[in-house]
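Postdoc handover notes: sequence design on the structure in folder B. Input C-alpha cells:
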C-alpha cells in the first residue's frame, strides 16, 4: 500500500460534485491537497465553497484551465499524484456543442498525460459508465465493449483510450476509475436524483424525460473512497476499475422511492420532450459488476441507496435556492 500522507496531491475538477467530496475526504485523512478549479470572473470555488472554514484553510486552490498545457505543466511540478476529474459532463449540451467536449475531455486529458509523463507523476483518471452505452449484458464488467452513444461519451471514450495509449507507450503509472451513477449532497439538478427531489420538495408534479432507463446509483462518499484506494494500491497500473453499487433501479421506481421518503402521495409525472435524448443515444441499462474493485483494491459500497437519499434530501431541503426548480437548462 502506498502511503499518501507524505505525497503532494493535486485534484483537477475540484470544484465539481465528486471533486469537492474527494478533496474533503482527503483533507480529513490528513493529506496535502491542491485543488484546481476552472477560472471564473466571480471568484467562485464551486462546490468547494460548501467546505467548512477549517478545511478551506488547509486546501490550496489554483484557478486555471486544463485545456491550457502551459498552465498544467507549470502547476504539476513537484506533484506526486494527480486525480484527474476535470471534464465537461452534461450530455444534452454535447449534442449542440461537441467541440467543447473535445477541447476539455480529450485535449485536457492529453495535457495532464503529457505533464504526468514529463514529471513522473502517478495519475488517477476518471472515466464514466456512460462509455458502456446500453448494456449488451448485465451486470457490466470492465470487459464490456465501449459504445459512443452521445458526443459526451465519445469524448470520454477517446480520453480513456489516450490514457490507455500512454500506459502502453510510456509505461506510466495510471489507473482509470469508471464510476457508475454517483449521487449525494452538492450534486446539481443536471443529474436525475437532484432533479427529482428538488421538484418534489416544491410540488407533487415533476417534469422528467424517459422513466424507463435503469441506473446503478452509488453514494458519493463511497465513490471517492474508490479513487483513494486506487491511489493507495500499487501494481495496478494500466487497469480500469468499475466503481458502482451493483444494483439497478428504474427512474420510475426512483421517483416513487423519493416521493415516499418525502411523504408525497398522488405524484404527477409529466414527460418533457426537452429532457429526452435522441432515440439511438439513450442508454437504457447500466448496472455495475464491481467484483474487480473488490478483488483489486478491496473496495465495496458502504452506504445504501436509501440512506444516501436521506442525506441528499436533507442537503437539498437546506439549500433549495441552489436548485433552479422548474427551469430546465441543458
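Designed sequence:
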Amino acid at each position: 500500500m502506498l502511503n499518501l500522507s507524505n505525497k503532494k496531491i493535486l485534484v483537477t475538477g475540484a470544484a465539481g460534485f465528486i471533486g469537492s467530496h474527494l478533496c474533503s475526504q482527503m483533507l480529513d485523512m490528513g493529506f496535502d491537497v491542491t485543488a484546481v478549479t476552472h477560472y471564473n470572473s466571480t471568484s467562485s470555488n464551486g462546490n468547494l465553497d460548501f467546505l467548512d472554514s477549517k478545511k478551506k484553510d488547509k486546501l490550496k486552490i489554483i484557478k486555471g484551465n486544463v485545456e491550457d498545457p502551459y498552465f498544467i505543466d507549470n502547476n504539476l511540478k513537484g506533484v506526486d499524484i494527480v486525480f484527474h476529474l476535470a471534464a465537461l459532463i452534461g450530455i444534452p449540451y454535447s449534442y449542440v456543442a461537441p467541440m467543447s467536449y473535445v477541447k476539455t475531455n480529450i485535449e485536457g486529458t492529453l495535457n495532464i498525460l503529457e505533464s504526468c509523463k514529463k514529471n513522473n507523476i502517478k495519475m488517477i483518471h476518471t472515466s464514466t459508465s456512460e462509455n458502456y452505452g446500453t448494456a449488451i449484458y448485465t451486470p457490466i464488467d470492465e470487459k464490456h465493449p465501449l459504445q459512443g452513444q452521445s458526443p459526451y461519451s465519445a469524448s470520454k471514450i477517446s480520453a480513456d483510450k489516450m490514457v490507455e495509449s500512454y500506459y502502453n507507450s510510456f509505461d506510466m503509472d495510471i489507473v482509470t476509475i469508471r464510476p457508475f451513477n454517483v449521487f449525494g449532497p452538492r450534486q446539481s439538478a443536471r443529474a436525475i436524483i437532484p432533479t427529482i427531489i428538488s421538484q418534489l420538495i416544491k410540488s407533487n408534479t415533476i417534469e422528467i424525460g424517459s422513466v424507463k432507463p435503469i441506473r446503478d446509483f452509488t453514494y458519493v462518499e463511497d465513490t471517492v473512497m474508490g479513487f483513494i484506494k486506487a491511489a493507495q494500491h500499487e501494481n495496478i497500473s494500466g487497469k480500469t476499475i468499475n466503481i458502482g453499487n451493483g444494483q439497478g433501479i428504474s427512474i420510475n421506481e426512483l421517483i416513487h422511492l423519493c416521493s415516499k421518503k418525502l411523504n408525497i402521495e398522488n405524484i404527477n409525472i409529466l414527460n418533457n420532450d426537452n429532457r429526452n435524448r435522441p432515440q439511438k443515444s439513450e442508454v437504457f441499462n447500466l448496472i455495475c459488476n464491481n467484483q474487480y474493485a473488490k478483488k483489486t483494491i478491496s473496495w465495496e459500497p458502504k452506504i445504501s441507496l436509501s440512506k444516501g437519499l436521506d442525506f441528499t434530501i436533507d442537503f437539498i431541503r437546506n439549500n433549495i435556492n441552489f436548485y433552479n426548480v422548474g427551469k430546465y437548462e441543458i
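Context for whoever picks this up: The mean pLDDT is 94. Don't rerun without checking with the PI first.
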